[in-house]
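Regression test case RT-17, inverse folding.

Input:
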């Protein structure tokens, strides 16, 4: 087995992509068996987009994900145990078991959270960027959103404010070709989401979302620009999700065409593995990473299963509750 030396950073990208893929594979099988409640939106096929973008960030930079939320915190560097525990609704989860699959947050890694509200991350990222600027912090905020969210008003409000105030924000549209089951071409005017950047006077960049190095490069340029006080950038990663909008829903509602096989043939992990091997990385090093990630996933599952569910009396802990007085006539019937 060869020493990895200068390849440490490159292997970390491979490691994070594998971590996402294996986590998602395990989560999908658990959901099919009824062990994970609710809907499950997986990130398989899009790993290079999330990992490339997050590798351009520092740990203390902010990141806002989407409802397809497992891949983003893992790409940012979050550990698997609290994430899997959250999927199972356990008290050891990142949100104490109250968030579930679509609401993962890990403030220790700058992951401000995901929600099921499509496009809601735009104002959150703009707010985090504004906060960093007002406090004189050398931080940026990156917002992921999909092609389905690219026409949501909240996304454009966030980009507009970020552009007007030159906030240190990066908006990354992960164009995976479908908003639920609607092809992007049927819902988005124009060929490229990135072209909308012109309306805000900010750079718009298109990048191959299956190439983790290319994604990191363009996001790093946007990060440097944001840190220098030059404002936001809109980046569109052209990528593809392998699974339906939500898995195990009985049948695949996504209208796959002949291009499906072409995208699968450009699997981001396979492409990067081939690149590393061509650059002299030993296959045994990569196999060792694959095996180590399998152990991580097995460990996080054991941890999650062994963890307790939140106690009933904790239902309103860490939750905002409006405590306005109840009118007497209402209270009499409560």
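Golden output:
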């Amino acid at each position: 087995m060869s020493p990895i030396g200068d390849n440490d950073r490159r292997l970390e990208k491979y490691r994070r992509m594998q971590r996402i893929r294996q986590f998602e594979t395990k989560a999908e099988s658990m959901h099919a068996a009824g062990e994970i409640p609710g809907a499950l939106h997986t990130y398989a096929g899009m790993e290079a987009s999330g990992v490339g973008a997050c590798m351009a960030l520092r740990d203390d930079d902010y990141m806002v994900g989407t409802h397809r939320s497992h891949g983003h915190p893992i790409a940012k560097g979050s550990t698997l145990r609290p994430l899997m525990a959250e999927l199972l609704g356990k008290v050891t989860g990142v949100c104490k078991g109250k968030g579930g699959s679509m609401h993962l947050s890990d403030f220790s890694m700058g992951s401000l959270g995901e929600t099921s509200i499509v496009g809601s991350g735009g104002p959150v990222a703009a707010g985090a960027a504004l906060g960093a600027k007002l406090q004189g912090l050398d931080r940026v905020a990156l917002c992921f959103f999909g092609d389905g969210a690219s026409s949501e008003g909240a996304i454009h409000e966030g980009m507009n404010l970020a552009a007007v105030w030159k906030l240190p924000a990066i908006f990354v549209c992960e164009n995976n070709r479908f908003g639920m089951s609607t092809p992007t071409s049927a819902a988005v005017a124009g060929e490229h989401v990135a072209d909308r950047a012109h309306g805000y006077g900010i750079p718009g960049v298109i990048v191959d979302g299956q190439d983790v190095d290319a994604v990191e490069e363009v996001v790093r340029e946007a990060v440097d620009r944001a840190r220098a006080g030059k404002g936001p950038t809109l980046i569109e990663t052209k990528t593809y999700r392998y699974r339906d909008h939500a898995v195990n829903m009985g049948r695949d509602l996504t209208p796959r065409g002949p291009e499906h096989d072409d995208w699968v043939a450009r699997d981001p992990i396979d492409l990067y593995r081939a690149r590393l091997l061509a650059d002299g990385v030993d296959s045994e090093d990569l196999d060792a990473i694959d095996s180590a990630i399998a152990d991580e996933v097995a460990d996080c599952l054991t941890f999650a299963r062994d963890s307790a569910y939140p106690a009933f009396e904790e239902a309103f802990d860490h939750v905002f509750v409006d405590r306005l007085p109840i009118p007497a006539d209402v209270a009499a019937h409560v």
